[in-house]
Design goal:
Length: 204
């Protein structure tokens, strides 16, 4: 009886993993949940405010301090990326596609309105078509796809950008070579933000 019970428990723990893999064919992780292998600091001499705890990549920036951006070693061209983030009220960060096009992260749930600099915006370029921010205490989910110069974003289950043409860098970019592959980078110099479950699927 004990062995059967142990088997059932083990199977129950395995099912979610199998289910996730079945739902995400072609995706692979770019954050291993243990350390920052595969990533490097944008400024190697900058203040490293990043740490990994409990499978979560945390950037803790106290008021008046500045952290450092975190950049993938690998570069990408066409892809879909999925990630989760949590951000305190009024805290500011960003998730950069190819290191040039910022999907804004902002703790703006209390504002109740979308803007070109608000949460989910293609920063200073296109405001979300609908306001989809969650409160500071909740994890938020993103699926972003970039093919050529077109960006589609789903924030918390709502499509907020649909093949938006973005043929220029949006600010604080790694470079302006918008017709070339580029790294993913996480903005770390502005404010506190947490990330988890970052997965990417490269497209043709």
């Amino acid at each position: 009886m004990k062995s059967i019970l142990s088997f059932c428990i083990a199977l129950a723990l395995l099912v979610p993993t199998l289910s996730l893999q079945a739902e995400e064919p072609g995706f692979r992780t770019i954050f291993n949940g243990k350390d920052t292998t595969g990533w490097h600091l944008r400024n190697k001499n900058g203040h490293n405010s990043w740490k990994v705890e409990g499978g979560v990549l945390k950037n803790i920036v106290n008021k008046g301090d500045h952290g450092t951006d975190l950049v993938t070693d690998q570069k990408f061209w066409n892809f879909t990326i999925r990630y989760e983030f949590q951000v305190p009220d009024d805290s500011n960060s960003g998730f950069y596609l190819r290191g040039r096009h910022e999907i804004q992260i902002l703790g703006d749930h209390k504002s109740g309105k979308a803007s070109k600099t608000g949460n989910g915006a293609i920063y200073n370029h296109t405001a979300p078509s609908v306001f989809a921010s969650k409160p500071a205490s909740e994890w938020q989910t993103v699926e972003a796809t970039i093919v050529g110069n077109k960006i589609t974003v789903i924030l918390n289950g709502k499509k907020i950008h649909d093949e938006v043409v973005c043929d220029k860098a949006t600010g604080s970019e790694l470079d302006n070579k918008v017709t070339e592959p580029g790294s993913i980078f996480l903005q770390g110099d502005h404010g506190t933000v947490w990330f988890r479950n970052m997965r990417i699927k490269e497209l043709k």
